[in-house]
C-alpha cells in the first residue's frame, strides 16, 4: 500500500484508502476501489476481474458449494495463520484485504504438478459433469493441508457441497483414501511434517511462501465508494466512532456475511463496518463460574473452543453438546466465517429465523454483554435481547454459566436431510434435578413454533417440584405442551400438526435419554438415542476384458484432469466479448389467469448501466420457444415473453439488458407491472383438477383394455398413488451467450441439443436456420432440464443480441431458474383391484394421470403405459392414461421420465397387495411377473441370494419386536426397462497427418454421462491407437446438423456406434495403402495415406432405422434397508444392494458413476425433494434454503453395486447396454423400505390400523412421522 496516497479524513482518525491488496497463492492482487460496489463478492472478483473461472457459482447464497475456495488468514487473537474453506459467493471482496486465496487453478496443474487431492479425485472417478468439482476440491484442500485427518472428518466436512451427478460415493472414496485411518485397500499418501514449511514468526505450518517477513499492525481505515463508505476497524471503540459518524444513516456490521444466504440483501446501506479483526470480539476467558466468549467468534472457532473446554472443566462438560449441535448448523465453509453474534442479530431482525444458536444459548441461560454508542456496557438475556432496540449497539460477549452434575442438558435438531438444512423443528432442554429425579428448575425451548414462542412456560412451571420419572408426571407434561404449543403455518414450513407433535416427542426423547435405564421398558430404550452414522462404505463388482482395452477398461473420464484443475470451461465461463451486455428476465408476479394491463420500465431504465428493456414487441418472428418445427414433442406454442394473459406465476414478461449482471438483475426487479387478477383460483395439482371436476383440463392419451377377467377374487383392494415433481438441480443453471457476427448469430447455450436452440432462434428472429450457429462443449449437468427448456433462455438472448447488435449473456439466477423452468411430471393414480390368496391380480381398474403444466407439451403417454405394464401380466388390467393441464410451468423431461413414476406405480400396487394379504412382496412379484420375461425372476432371485435378503428380513422382524421407537424396514424392487431406439446423431472424425492424432466431434452433448470418454475408448480400440491420441471437440450445428437431443440413455451408445462405423470406413480406405507397406505403424500409415491423397476424414450418422441396431430390455433388481426414528421421522439408509444389467460395459467406471448417481437422484425424489407452491401458484421452494437434494450423509451407509459377469447384450453396441436412467427407477425401493418400517410402528401404535399407507409425494421426515400414528398418550417409561 502506498501510504503517501492515504488521505486523512478531517472528521475522524480513519485513513482513507483507494486500494487494497490480497493474494492469489503467491501473486499479489491490487484492488482498486473507485468503481467497485460494496456488494462485490470474492467470487465475482475472481471470475470477472481475474478471469479465474475454475471457481464456479450457482446459488449465490452459500448453499451449493460450487463457489468454495480456500483462504489463508491471520487469526487476530493468536497472530497465526490458518487455512479455511469459504464460500466465495458470500464473502465481500472488501473483507479479503491481506488474505491469501487458493483457487483450483493455483493448487495444482500440469505445469507445477497436481495436488494429491486432485490426483485422488481423478483416480477414483469422482467427476462427472464436473461443475461441482472445484468446490469439492477446495473444500478438501484445507483439511488435507492441516494434516492427520480421518475418514470420519472427511465425511463430516462436505455438508455444503452438492453433487447431482455422482451420488457422492466416489468423491468420498477419493478423499477418504488420503485419511490417516484409511484402510489398506484405499490408502493414499499424506503429508509428512518435514514436508511442510514452518513459518518463522509463529512456529505453525505455513501454507504458502510468506509475502513479507511479518505483518505490520494495521490501522483503521475506510474506502469512500460511490454511495457508501466501507470501514475497517480493529476495536470496539472504533465501531462506536463509526456509529457516531453515521448519525441517522444506515449501517451494517460485516463479518461472515452468511446471513445473505438466508435473507438476501435487498438495499444498499450507507456505512459498512468490517469487524472481522476486532480482537476484543474474538477472545475468551474464564470469570469465576462463567465462560465469557467474544461474540464475533466464528462458529468453527466456538466449536473448537467448546470441545476443548468441555474436557478441561467438569462444570462446562455440556459445551460438547453445544459443539455437536453447532456442527449441524449450515456447513464447514459457512461456519468458518459465520459468527455467533451475526446469527443472533439475524434472529433479532427476523424473529421467525430458526436460529440454532439462539436455541441452545437460551436453553443454557446464556447472557449477552451489549455496548451502546455511549460506551456503557450492560447484560441482557436472549429473550430480552430480541425485544431490545439494537440500533448502534454491539454484542460484545456471550456469557455461559457453569452447570454442575445436577443439571441435565440436551438439544435436538430435526432437518429434511442429514446436514446443511435449517430446522423443521428444534428443541433445547435443561433441567436441574434433586436426588436425580425431582425437578427444581426447568427450561424447555422450542422453535420454530411461531415468531413469538420461545419457552414452554406453562410446562416449565408445571415441572417444578415434580418427580420426573413417573408416567403420570410426563403425561401431564405432554398435556400442557399440547395446550401451549400453537404453531403458525407459513409455506413451505411443515404443518402445525407435525411441529407440535414432534416438539412433544422430542421432550419424551429427552426424558428417555436422562432416565435411569432401570425405569424404562426394554423396548423403549432405543428411543433415548439420536442416530449416529458410521463412515460409509461402498463396493463395486464388475468385469473387464483386457483383450479389448482401452474398451471395457475402467478408466477415469478423459475430462477429469481438466475438471480437477479448473481448465474445463462451461457456458457460464465464456469470456466476455468486447461490448458484451448482460440480460435478466422480468417475471410476472401474479397468479395464473391474470391479465397484464401495463408494463412501466421507467424506474428500471433510470438506473445507471441499464441499456434496454425488451419484451414481446421486440420479437421479429414468432413469440414461441416451442415451435413445431423444432421437435415432435411440441403441440403448443409456449411464449418467450407473456403477451398479456399470465399462464403461471413467474412467467417471463420481458428482460432488462445492462452492462453488468448485477445491474440487470437489480433493474429487472424495478419494472412496474399492473395486473388485473382473475377471480379463478389457480389449479396447481392433478388432485385440484379432479376435485374441481375440470374435465376440460383432462385429456385421454392412451388406454389398455382387459382381454380377460380372473375368476378367483378373494380380496378387493382400493387405493391411490401420488408422485410429485422434482427440480433437476443442474449445478450450472440455464444460460446462453449470443454473439452477432456479420449477418449471422452464434449461440453458446447450456442445452442438451444444438438443433433445438438453432431452430427456435431462427423461428423467433424470422431468419434462415443456416444463419444461426450453435456450439456446445459441455454442460454443468442436464438430466433433461436442458432439452427443451433452455430454448426460452437462448431465444431471449438471441432477441437481445439481434436487436442491439451486441454480444449478450443471459444466465439465470437459481431462484429464477427454479421459478420458470419446468420440472419432472407429477403423476397420480386411482385404482381398485381384485386378487386371489396368492396376490395374483384377477382384475385391475386404474386411472393414471400425468401433469404437463399449463401448455400440454412433452406428454409421457406411451412411456407411462409401457412401463406400468411392462413387467407384469396385464391381460386383466383396465387402465386409462390421462394428461392434465395445471396452472404451473410446463413440465419437462427429467431423468428417467415416466419410467420412474410408472415403475413406482406398479411396484406400489404389488406392495399394497403384499401388505394387505400379509405375504411376501417377492411372492407377489413372482406371481404377477410377465411370463415372457424370465429375466425378471432371474435378476430378482440373484438379488435375493447376493444380498442375503431372507436372513436380513428375519433379523429386522426380530429387531422391530424388541424396539418400539426405532424401526427397520427392507424392500426389494425388480425392474425390466425397455430401451427404445430413436433419433440420429452425426460423427465427424479427422486424422492429422503430422502426428497421427485424431479429433472427433459428434452430435451428442457431454454433460457428465461420459459420452466423450466412451467415444474415445471406442475409437482407440477400433483404430488400435493410444487413448491420448484422441480429443473430442465441441459439438456444433455445422458438422452435426439436425442432431436429436442427448437424452433417454441412448446417445452414448448411438454415438459410439457411429464412431465405430466411421473408423471402419476409414480403415477400409487406408487398407489399400497399407497393403503396399511392410507392417507400418499408425503414424507411418497415416502419412503414407496423406501422400496418396486418401481422405483422412470420415463421417457417419446413427439412425434408429439402421438394420443392425435394435431395441432391447435392461433388467435389474435392488434391495434397500432403512431405519427410522419413530419419534422424529428421520431415517438412515443402512444398505443398498443394486444389480444393474449393463451387458458388457464399455467403460465400467463411467457406468458405475451413472448407476450410483441416478439412484441417488431418485433417493432425493422419493425422500427429501419437496416442491411446494403457495395458493396463488408462487413457488415457495425455490432456493437452496428450502429445497434439499441429498447430501453426502444421505447416501447409503453401505452401497453395493454389481454388474453381472458374462452377460453380453447381443443387440447392443459392443454388447453393452445403456445405464443413465434405469437405476433411478429402482430408487423407489427406499420409500417402500420406509413404509415397511413405518408399518411396524403403526402396528405398535394401533393394532387395528392398516399397515399400508399410500404414496403422497416424497417420504419426507414429516410424512414418515405422521404416518407412524404417534400419540403422546403412548409415551411412557
From TrEMBL:
GO MF terms, alphabetically ordered: 2 iron, 2 sulfur cluster binding; FAD binding; indole-3-acetaldehyde oxidase activity; iron ion binding
CC annotations in GO: peroxisome
Residues annotated as binding Mo-molybdopterin: 752, 895, 1048
Presence of the UniProt keyword Iron in the record: yes
SUBUNIT field: Homodimer.
Organism listed in the record: Photinus pyralis
Cofactor: FAD; Mo-molybdopterin; [2Fe-2S] cluster
Name of the protein described by the UniProt record: Indole-3-acetaldehyde oxidase
Record InterPro entries: 2Fe-2S-bd (IPR002888), 2Fe-2S-bd_dom_sf (IPR036884), 2Fe-2S_ferredoxin-like_sf (IPR036010), 2Fe-2S_ferredoxin-type (IPR001041), 2Fe2S_fd_BS (IPR006058), Ald_Oxase/Xan_DH_a/b (IPR000674), Ald_Oxase/Xan_DH_a/b_sf (IPR036856), Ald_Oxase/xanthine_DH-like (IPR016208)
Chain ranges of the FAD-binding PCMH-type domain: 223-405
Binding site for FAD: 413
Binding sites annotated in the UniProt record for [2Fe-2S] cluster 2: 129, 132, 163, 165
Gene3D superfamilies hit by this protein: 3.10.20.30, 3.30.465.10, [2Fe-2S]-binding domain (1.10.150.120), Aldehyde oxidase/xanthine dehydrogenase, a/b hammerhead (3.90.1170.50), Aldehyde oxidase/xanthine dehydrogenase, molybdopterin binding domain (3.30.365.10), CO dehydrogenase flavoprotein, C-terminal domain (3.30.390.50)
Residues holding [2Fe-2S] cluster 1: 59, 64, 67, 89
Cofactor, how bound (note): Binds 1 Mo-molybdopterin (Mo-MPT) cofactor per subunit.
Protein localization: Peroxisome
Active site positions: 1221
SUPFAM superfamilies in alphabetical order: 2Fe-2S ferredoxin-like, CO dehydrogenase flavoprotein C-terminal domain-like, CO dehydrogenase ISP C-domain like, CO dehydrogenase molybdoprotein N-domain-like, FAD-binding/transporter-associated domain-like, Molybdenum cofactor-binding domain
The reaction(s) this protein catalyses: indole-3-acetaldehyde + O2 + H2O = (indol-3-yl)acetate + H2O2 + H(+)
Similarity-based family: Belongs to the xanthine dehydrogenase family.
Amino acid at each position: 500500500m502506498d501510504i503517501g496516497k492515504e488521505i486523512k479524513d478531517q472528521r475522524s482518525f480513519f485513513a482513507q484508502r483507494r486500494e487494497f491488496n490480497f493474494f492469489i497463492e503467491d501473486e499479489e492482487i491490487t484492488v482498486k476501489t473507485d468503481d467497485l460496489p460494496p456488494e462485490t463478492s470474492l467470487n465475482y472478483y475472481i471470475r470477472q476481474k481475474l478471469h479465474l473461472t475454475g471457481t464456479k457459482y450457482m446459488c449465490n447464497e452459500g448453499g451449493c458449494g460450487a463457489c468454495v475456495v480456500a483462504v489463508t488468514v491471520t487469526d487476530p487473537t493468536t497472530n497465526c495463520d490458518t487455512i479455511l474453506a469459504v464460500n466465495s459467493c458470500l464473502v465481500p471482496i472488501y473483507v479479503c484485504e491481506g488474505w491469501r486465496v487458493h483457487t483450483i487453478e493455483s493448487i495444482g496443474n500440469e505445469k507445477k504438478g497436481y495436488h494429491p487431492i486432485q490426483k485422488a479425485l481423478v483416480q477414483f472417478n469422482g467427476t462427472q459433469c464436473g461443475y461441482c468439482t472445484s468446490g469439492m476440491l477446495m473444500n478438501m484442500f484445507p483439511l488435507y493441508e492441516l494434516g492427520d485427518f480421518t475418514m470420519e472428518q472427511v465425511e463430516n466436512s462436505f455438508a455444503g457441497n452438492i453433487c447431482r451427478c455422482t451420488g457422492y460415493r466416489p468423491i468420498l472414496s477419493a478423499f477418504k483414501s488420503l485419511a490417516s485411518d484409511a484402510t489398506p485397500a484405499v490408502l493414499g499418501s499424506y503429508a509428512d511434517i518435514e514436508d511442510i514449511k514452518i513459518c518463522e514468526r509463529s512456529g505453525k505450518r505455513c501454507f504458502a511462501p510468506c509475502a513479507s517477513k511479518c505483518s505490520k499492525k494495521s490501522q483503521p481505515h475506510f474506502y469512500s465508494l460511490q454511495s457508501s463508505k466501507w470501514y475497517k476497524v480493529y476495536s470496539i471503540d472504533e465501531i462506536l466512532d463509526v456509529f457516531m459518524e453515521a448519525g441517522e444513516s444506515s449501517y451494517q456490521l460485516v463479518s461472515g456475511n452468511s446471513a445473505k444466504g438466508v435473507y438476501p440483501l435487498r438495499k444498499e446501506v450507507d456505512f459498512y463496518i468490517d469487524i472481522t479483526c476486532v480482537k476484543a470480539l474474538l477472545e475468551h476467558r474464564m470469570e469465576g463460574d462463567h465462560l465469557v466468549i467474544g461474540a464475533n467468534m466464528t462458529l468453527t472457532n466456538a466449536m473448537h473452543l467448546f470441545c476443548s473446554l468441555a474436557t478441561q472443566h467438569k462444570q462446562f462438560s455440556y459445551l460438547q453438546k453445544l459443539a455437536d449441535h453447532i456442527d449441524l448448523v449450515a456447513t464447514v465453509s459457512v461456519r468458518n466465517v459465520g459468527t455467533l453474534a451475526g446469527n443472533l442479530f439475524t434472529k433479532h431482525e427476523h424473529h421467525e429465523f430458526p436460529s440454532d444458536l439462539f436455541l441452545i444459548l437460551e436453553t443454557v441461560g446464556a447472557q449477552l454483554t451489549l455496548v451502546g454508542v455511549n460506551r456503557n456496557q450492560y447484560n441482557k438475556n436472549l429473550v430480552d435481547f430480541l425485544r431490545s432496540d439494537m440500533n448502534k449497539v454491539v454484542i460484545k460477549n456471550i456469557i455461559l454459566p457453569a452447570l454442575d452434575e445436577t443439571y441435565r442438558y440436551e438439544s435436538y435438531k430435526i432437518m429434511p436431510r442429514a446436514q446443511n438444512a435449517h430446522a423443521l423443528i428444534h428443541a433445547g432442554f435443561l433441567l436441574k434435578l434433586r436426588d436425580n429425579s425431582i425437578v427444581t428448575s426447568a427450561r424447555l425451548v422450542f422453535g420454530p413454533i411461531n415468531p413469538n414462542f420461545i419457552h414452554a412456560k406453562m410446562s416449565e412451571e408445571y415441572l417444578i417440584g415434580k418427580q420426573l420419572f413417573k408416567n403420570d408426571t410426563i403425561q401431564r407434561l405432554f398435556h400442557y405442551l399440547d395446550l401451549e404449543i400453537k404453531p403458525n403455518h407459513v409455506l413451505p414450513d411443515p404443518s402445525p400438526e407435525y411441529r407440535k407433535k414432534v416438539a412433544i416427542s422430542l421432550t419424551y426423547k429427552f426424558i428417555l435419554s436422562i432416565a435411569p435405564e432401570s425405569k424404562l421398558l426394554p423396548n423403549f430404550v432405543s428411543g433415548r438415542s439420536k442416530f449416529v452414522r458410521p463412515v460409509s462404505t461402498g463396493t463395486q463388482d464388475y468385469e473387464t476384458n483386457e483383450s479389448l482395452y482401452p474398451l471395457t477398461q475402467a478408466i477415469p473420464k478423459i475430462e477429469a484432469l481438466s475438471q480437477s484443475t479448473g481448465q474445463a470451461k462451461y457456458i457460464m465461463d465464456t469470456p466476455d466479448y468486447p461490448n458484451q451486455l448482460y440480460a435478466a428476465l422480468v417475471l410476472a408476479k401474479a397468479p395464473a389467469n391474470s391479465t397484464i394491463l401495463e408494463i412501466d420500465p421507467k424506474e428500471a431504465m433510470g438506473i445507471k448501466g441499464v441499456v434496454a428493456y425488451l419484451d414481446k414487441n421486440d420479437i421479429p418472428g414468432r413469440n414461441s420457444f416451442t415451435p413445431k418445427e423444432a421437435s415432435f414433442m411440441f403441440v403448443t406454442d409456449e411464449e418467450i415473453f407473456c403477451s398479456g394473459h399470465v399462464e403461471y406465476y413467474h412467467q417471463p414478461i420481458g428482460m432488462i439488458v445492462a452492462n453488468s449482471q448485477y445491474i440487470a438483475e437489480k433493474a429487472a426487479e424495478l419494472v412496474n407491472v399492473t395486473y388485473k387478477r382473475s377471480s379463478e383460483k389457480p389449479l396447481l395439482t392433478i388432485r385440484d383438477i379432479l376435485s374441481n371436476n375440470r374435465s376440460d383440463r383432462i385429456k385421454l392419451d392412451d388406454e389398455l383394455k382387459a382381454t380377460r377377467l380372473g375368476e378367483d377374487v378373494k380380496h378387493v383392494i382400493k387405493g391411490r398413488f401420488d408422485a410429485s415433481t422434482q427440480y433437476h438441480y443442474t449445478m450450472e443453471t440455464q444460460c446462453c451467450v449470443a454473439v452477432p457476427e456479420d449477418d449471422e448469430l452464434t449461440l453458446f447455450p447450456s442445452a442438451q441439443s444444438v438443433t433445438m436452440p438453432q431452430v427456435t432462434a431462427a423461428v423467433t428472429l424470422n431468419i434462415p436456420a443456416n444463419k444461426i450457429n450453435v456450439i456446445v462443449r459441455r454442460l454443468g449437468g442436464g438430466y433433461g432440464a436442458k432439452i427443451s427448456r433452455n430454448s426460452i433462455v437462448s431465444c431471449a438472448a438471441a432477441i437481445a443480441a439481434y436487436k442491439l447488435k451486441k454480444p449478450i449473456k443471459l444466465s439465470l439466477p437459481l431462484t429464477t431458474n427454479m421459478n420458470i423452468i419446468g420440472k419432472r411430471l407429477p403423476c397420480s393414480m386411482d385404482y381398485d383391484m381384485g386378487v386371489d390368496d396368492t396376490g395374483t391380480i384377477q382384475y385391475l381398474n386404474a386411472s393414471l394421470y400425468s401433469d404437463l403444466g399449463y401448455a400440454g407439451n412433452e406428454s409421457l403417454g406411451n412411456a407411462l403405459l409401457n412401463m406400468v405394464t411392462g413387467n407384469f401380466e396385464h391381460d386383466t388390467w383396465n387402465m386409462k392414461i390421462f394428461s392434465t393441464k395445471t396452472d404451473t410451468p410446463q413440465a419437462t423431461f427429467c431423468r428417467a421420465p415416466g419410467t420412474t413414476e410408472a415403475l413406482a406405480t406398479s411396484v406400489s400396487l404389488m406392495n399394497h397387495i403384499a401388505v394387505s394379504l400379509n405375504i411376501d412382496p417377492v411372492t407377489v412379484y413372482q406371481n404377477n411377473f410377465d411370463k415372457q420375461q424370465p429375466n425378471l425372476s432371474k435378476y430378482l432371485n440373484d438379488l435375493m441370494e447376493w444380498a442375503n435378503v431372507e436372513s436380513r428380513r428375519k433379523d429386522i422382524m426380530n429387531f422391530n419386536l424388541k424396539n418400539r421407537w426405532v424401526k427397520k424396514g427392507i424392500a426389494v424392487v425388480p425392474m425390466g426397462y425397455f430401451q427404445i431406439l430413436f433419433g440420429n446423431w452425426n460423427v465427424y472424425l479427422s486424422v492429422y497427418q503430422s502426428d497421427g492424432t485424431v479429433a472427433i466431434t459428434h452430435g451428442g452433448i457431454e454433460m457428465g454421462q461420459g459420452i466423450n470418454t466412451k467415444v474415445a475408448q471406442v475409437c482407440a480400440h477400433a483404430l488400435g491407437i493410444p487413448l491420448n491420441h484422441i480429443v473430442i471437440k465441441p459439438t456444433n450445428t455445422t458438422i452435426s446438423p439436425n442432431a436429436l437431443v442427448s437424452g433417454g440413455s441412448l446417445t452414448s451408445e448411438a454415438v459410439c456406434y457411429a464412431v465405430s462405423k466411421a473408423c471402419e470406413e476409414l480403415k477400409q480406405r487406408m487398407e489399400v495403402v497399407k497393403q503396399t507397406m511392410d507392417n507400418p505403424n499408425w503414424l507411418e500409415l497415416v502419412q503414407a495415406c496423406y501422400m496418396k491423397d486418401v481422405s483422412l476424414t470420415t463421417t457417419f450418422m446413427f439412425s434408429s432405422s439402421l438394420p443392425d441396431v435394435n431395441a432391447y430390455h435392461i433388467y435389474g433388481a435392488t434391495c434397500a434397508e432403512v431405519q427410522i426414528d419413530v419419534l422424529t421421522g428421520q431415517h438412515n439408509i443402512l444398505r443398498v444392494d443394486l444389480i444393474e444389467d449393463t451387458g458388457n460395459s464399455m467403460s465400467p467406471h463411467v457406468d458405475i458413476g451413472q448407476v450410483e448417481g441416478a439412484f441417488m437422484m431418485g433417493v432425493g425424489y422419493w425422500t427429501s425433494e419437496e416442491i411446494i407452491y403457495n395458493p396463488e401458484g408462487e413457488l415457495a421452494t425455490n432456493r437452496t434454503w428450502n429445497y434439499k437434494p441429498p447430501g453426502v450423509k444421505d447416501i447409503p451407509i453401505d452401497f453395493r453395486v454389481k454388474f453381472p459377469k458374462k452377460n453380453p447384450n447381443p443387440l447392443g453396441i459392443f454388447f453393452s447396454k445403456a445405464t443413465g436412467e434405469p437405476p433411478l427407477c429402482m430408487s423407489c425401493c427406499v420409500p417402500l423400505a420406509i413404509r415397511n418400517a413405518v408399518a411396524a410402528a403403526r402396528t405398535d401404535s394401533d393394532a387395528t390400523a392398516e399397515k399400508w399407507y399410500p404414496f403422497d409425494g416424497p417420504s419426507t421426515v414429516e410424512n414418515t412421522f405422521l404416518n407412524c400414528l404417534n400419540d403422546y398418550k403412548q409415551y411412557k417409561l
